[in-house]
Amino acid sequence: MRKILYATTAIAAAAAMPQAAQAANIMDSVTCSQVGSGTFFCDQANATVGAGDEFLVGNGTNFIGVDFGTGTLELTALRGFSLGGTVLEFTNLTNQFNSFSFIGSSVNDFDAGDITLVNGVLTLDFIDTDASAGDSVQLAVGSVPEPATWAFMILGFGAIGGAMRRQKNAARKANVKVSYA
Fold first, then answer.
1. Which UniProt keywords apply (predicted)?
2. 11: containing domain
């Protein structure tokens, strides 16, 4: 009976806690803005991360597709372009970006030095770069863990500690000494 009670309590606790988030999860709210002197702009200011491109960047014609995945960001050239003074900023309103790593780029003159992260705002500097259709930039982005992440971790440590203690007590009880008089 006790085992059923413990199992039911653990399942109820796990169900009551919200799911932990990663960077740019599905349903996160992300913003895009052009802060340079270029003529390319984001097609919308805010988007909810989901399937496909969240933002399209261009000057009336779409030139770049911006796609957030779980922990990733990929910008893909939809057609050839020269970006001039375009600088794009991205902010994750749901889970603030706190780290990034440059995976790669096939865009001419764009590398890790063109990316900055300050106060949760990810900035991509495309000044004087050009690309052909299909060229892309890939980043891995990280965010600050939610409180639910910490709660699940602490709950897990507690469960492991409880299991170890129970196993230790069971081993002590199993050491039964039989003596004959």
1. Signal
2. 2-19+147-167
